[in-house]
Amino acid sequence: MSKIFIVLLIFYIVFINIGCNISNTKKQKELHIEKGIASWYGKEFNGKPTASGEVFNMNKLTAAHKNLEFGTLVKVKNLKTNETVIVKINDRGPYSKNRIIDLSKKAAKKIKILNSGIGNVSISIYGYENNNLSAIIKHYRNLQIIKYGKIIF
What we know:
This protein has 153 residues and is α/β, with parallel strands linked by helices. It has a single domain (3-148), classed as Barwin-like endoglucanases. It has helices at 3-17, 105-110, 133-148; strands at residues 31-41, 62-64, 72-78, 84-91, 99-104, 118-128. A hairpin with a 5-residue loop joins strand 3 (72-78) and strand 4 (84-91). Helix 1 (3-17) crosses helix 3 (133-148). It is globular, with a radius of gyration of 16 Å. The two termini are 18 Å apart.
């Protein structure tokens, strides 16, 4: 067996044994990762490809993040209103220095930052688009990004 397969198998067993639920369910455990300013983008990018290859649709619940794996589901909470939304990371950004996440227009509307254009938020990893071995690998890579700022393995 290859070393990578063995390492992945060990991570899979560890995640199952400690009860880390990485699927999108009602009993979801969240991993808080950052607080900062969120902004949104819409019409000017609508219909254009995102960094993940998906076509951007401003009327879907998606977001851009600088580092998180594509397909990561993130819970975004407006710290002023306590409104929350779950978005899928499918793009890279924001490119503004002081922002931590760019939301689609629909997501911005849900947490009530559409009119102001920006808002103070917290973001947490909520789950993954697919609940399979690929999701476990994405979770492990996201943990490395959070801890080290890059993927080291």
